[in-house]
Amino acid sequence: MEILKDIIPVIDENKNYWLVRTQGGKYYEEFKSGNFIAIGWNKITLDDLFSLEHHDLVKKIIKEYPKRIRPVRLANQLSSFAKDIKAGDTVIIPSAGSNKITIGEVEDDVPYLEYVDENAKGPDGRKLCPFQKRRRVRWIKTFSKWDLDMEFYKLFKSQHTISNANEYASFIDRMLHTFFIRGNEAHLILEVKKEGKIPFQALFPMGTEILNLAEDFNKKTAASLDLSNIEVKINVQSPGRIHLTGPVKTMLVIGFLLVLLVGGEVSVDIPIIESTVNVRMGSLLEKLADFMDRYQDLKRDDFILKTYMKELKVETPDELKTLMEIEHNPDLNHESNSKE
After folding, report:
1. Model's pTM, two decimal places?
2. What is the distance between the alpha carbons of residues 233 and 251, in angstroms, rounded to a whole number?
3. How many CB atoms lie within 10 A of CB 274?
4. Residue range 10-22, pLDDT digits in tens
5. How far apart are CA 122 and CA 127, in angstroms?
6. With the CA atoms of 272, 274, 277 and 282 taken in that order, what torsion angle do they form, in degrees rounded to the nearest 10?
7. Which regions of the chain does DSSP assign to beta strands (E)?
8. How many CA atoms lie within 13 A of 160 on its CB side?
9. pLDDT of 193-222, one tens digit each?
10. Which residues is 245 bridged to in the sheet?
11. DSSP three-state, residue 239
């Protein structure tokens, strides 16, 4: 049970996602190196944000910043920073021109104050971020804009200091994970690493062969997989991603089968029970192992699937490969725990 929790992310359906601007990239590197995000307008204090009613907050903004256009919008932005962003939420910061983005997780439920001399400079001679109202963030990964889904670019059209990015949650999660659980569904991401043109005759037949393999497993093991509720999203720009979504048990089996197909190993002794999604892995992995032991005797179509995956340079989920590696070599799990 602990192995599954440690390796396969189970994402809270109630978490929120935020884009936080970095003053045109001016403070992007400082946010990253300092593990924080921040917002300006220092004359508006944290006490103001938590004690004043919204209309009184707007009045104070008008008083302290009389030249500020749209004080109501600013009040909303400040309130979001202080009250709406919670520990566990995902935050995205863009560099200058959004050429890079970094994704992290908020670590505190309330902001803190950092008093910085507005004229202070860092070791590189650049002016330090003077914003006093801050939130602690654990940064996870940085991406080039060339790694982003095309739909994701719409998020960066907003010029607000803080923007809710919940409608882009699936894009963000699949950038960070290649297998994860959210609610009653599991998400399986296949990374297509092939450069250049993506052959039509390999991409779409590969999907059919994946389904055929799962159906064959279903018939020979009576696993009762639900193959009727699998959804697919494709963004294969070369390279790109194939995003499969479906019932947790079904997606776990498909993921493990694909890992094994391209050369993974699995033991039948993984004693995992994840009660929140009603998946018991022990007997399931026994069926997987038996099925793959007889793989050489399967019909030729299954070899075609392996050929398609090789042609497209498809990479299977890291989380599932890690799970198999830990069970195959228990010392890896001890090493992982000792680092925490």
Report:
1. 0.82
2. 14
3. 18
4. 999 899 999 999 9
5. 6
6. 20
7. 10-11, 17-20, 36-39, 90-94, 100-106, 112-113, 133-144, 162-164, 179-182, 185-192, 231-236, 240-247, 273-274, 279-280, 314-315
8. 19
9. 877 777 777 778 888 888 888 898 888 888
10. 187, 231
11. coil
